[in-house]
Amino acid sequence: EPQTLHLVGDFSAPAEFFVTLGVFSFLYAMVALVLYLRFHSLYSENKKVPFADFCVTLCFAFFWLVAAAAWGKGLSDVKAATRPSSLLAAMPVCQGSDVICNPGTTPAMGLANISVVR
């Protein structure tokens, strides 16, 4: 009889934060592009607009750093949850004394590691 095993923990929050920040960064870049190209005189004459642009960009840079750290922590949590020995410990079918479970190989996480570095 097949059984479904669910991982312990919710690892979606760092990924959702990272993607949300990426979407907001893209939208702000589009707004800034319109401001630079369409309202160049406003940007050149008013000194508060470039400063506000700098402050918003600085905030995005800080949150991007936080999001990258959260993404890395989420990845390490997923790695720990999907480690074969952790999965075997969570499977009730492998807890019996008459059952022999082999953990197999560790999953390849190379592309996931690259996603944190980039």
Task: Explain how this protein is built.
This is SYPL2 protein. Keywords: Glycoprotein, Membrane, Transmembrane, Transmembrane helix. Pfam families: MARVEL. The chain crosses the membrane at residues 17-39, 51-71. Residues 1-118 form the MARVEL domain. By secondary structure, the protein is mainly alpha-helical. It has one domain. 69% of the residues lie in helices and 0% in strands. It is built from 5 helices and no strands. Helix 1 runs antiparallel to helix 3 (48-81) and helix 3 runs antiparallel to helix 5. It is rod-shaped, with a radius of gyration of 23 Å.
Keywords:
single chain, 118 residues, mainly alpha, 69% helix
Report the radius of gyration as a whole number of Å.
23 Å
Structural class: mainly alpha
Outline: rod-shaped
Strand content: under 5%
Give the ordered list of helices and strands.
Answer: HHHHH
Low-confidence stretches: none
Count of helices? 5
Give the integer mean of the pLDDT values.
Answer: 89
Tell me the total number of β-strands: 0
Distance between the termini: 43 Å
The description of the largest β-sheet is: none
What oligomeric state do the depicted chains represent? single chain
**How many structural domains?**
1
- Helix amount, in percent? 55-70%
